[in-house]
Amino acid sequence: MFQLDSSPYSLTPESDDAIASRLREIEERVELLRRRGTLNEKTVIEYYGQKRFEQVAESNAIEGSTLSAGETEIAVLKGITITGHDPAYARDAIALDRALTRVVDIARDYQRPTDIDQLKEIHGLLMGERPGAGVFRSEPVRIRGAVHTPPKTWHEIIAQMEAWEAWSASNKSAPAPFRSAVLHAWLTHVHPFIDGNGRVSRAIGNLELIRAGYPPIIIKKKERERYIEALGESDDAGDLRSFIDLILDRTEGAITGLEMAARKIEGYNPVLERIRKMQEQQLAIWSTSVKLLGTVIEHYLTQQLEAARGRCSVRIFDGYLDLDDYINLCSGMSISGGWSFIVNIEIPGVGKLEKLAYVQHRSSRLYQYLGQQGGPSLFWSRVNPTGYPKWTRDGDQSPYAVEVTTRVGSGDEWIALLSNGLVEQCSTTELAARFGNSLLRQVSSMSINT
């Protein structure tokens, strides 16, 4: 279905089918919004207004800016620097807001596919008066922390960017989220400018979506590690699957935001504000509990593996939930992403095991067990042997429990749903040991089975 000839990427038939299926679901959701009249000009304008400064703040935060969305709004609307922050961050916010405003204007030309002239114009706006604004570089650069080395000479850059433009023109009828992912990742792969490559790539990705009538997406700072890792996979092996997954996750999140904007109730309610503050506190307790659990699992497994000279590392994702995510989970709604931590175990002569712990809403079993109280639960995924998506849910093969959660406001009382349907309660230390022992059994059984 998807044409990637002349691009640095390829997809397997299995992942091609899976991506196509997910895209159809997204397109059907957007079409339903349009039929119901929810996706109209008033709603879109309101949604853009809500997200405008968040989009600027989050895109710049990925590059190191410390301005919040509120501070970004002040910097853009008043044209001033913000006390306590590098003055360059305010200039970056003003420039990126100007560039994204132009993106919306360019998107009104529905027939013209994204090209080099549009790219250079947007880059010139977001870089302002800095050297190299809107001009392809003629010197080599390195991407900090990346294995991939972008093309070094101007001629190499021109050749790759002309291929990028040709692909855009010949695939203008491809689904917008797919075009967004390809053109975005390809730009970061070439890195055609001295500076501003990430910001202009994210702007181009949104240009594709807005032109097709989708809401713009926001890749948040909390997803920076996932974002960079997915781009690294696309750079190193031409594997675009994880990056497409991220873009589709964010697209679904943007559509949910648009739906919420359509149902928005105007006005300030002090009671609701107090409730929201309580929800923020409960989110903080949950996030701290999950982070502590990941840390204790790493400590426990490191001790257990010491004699066998094995290794364990737990990569914890900070800020993987925001308040809207938490409220959705408590309401029984699914969220995109939700990656909490990844456990890596390696034992010489035995094998390797990698598991992802992620968050979704509680199952009906624990919902009923907790007195019909909604909330987040932790689940396990393993590396997908088919390759796409990268992770697939463990289900009954999960280590120790298929699902664990805590009572609202409690940080050290875990409730575990076992694969046989029984429910157990334990502390963080006890849960970490049970997870750890089960993970060790799984990695040992891998060696026996092979």
Description:
There is one protein chain. With about 450 residues, the chain is α+β, with helices and mostly antiparallel strands. The strands form 2 sheets. A 5-stranded antiparallel β-sheet has the order 1-2-3-4-5. The chain has 2 domains: about 15-260, Fido-like domain (Fic-like fold), CATH 1.10.3290.10; about 275-450, no CATH class. The two termini are about 35 Å apart. Residues about 265-270 have low confidence and may be disordered. The protein has helices at about 15-35, 40-60, 70-80, 85-105, 115-125, 155-170, 175-190, 195-210, 225-235, 240-260, 270-305, 325-330, 365-370, 430-450, and strands at about 310-315, 340-345, 350-360, 375-385, 390-395, 405, 415, 425. The chain is built from 14 helices and 8 strands. The protein is globular. Helix 2 (about 40-60) crosses helix 3 (about 70-80) and helix 2 (about 40-60) crosses helix 10 (about 240-260).
Describe the structure concisely:
This protein has 450 residues and is α+β, with helices and mostly antiparallel strands. The chain has helices spanning 13-36, 41-62, 69-78, 87-107, 116-127, 154-170, 176-190, 197-211, 224-237, 241-262, 270-305, 323-330, 364-369, 428-449, and strands at residues 311-316, 339-347, 351-361, 376-383, 391-393, 403-406, 414-417, 423-426.
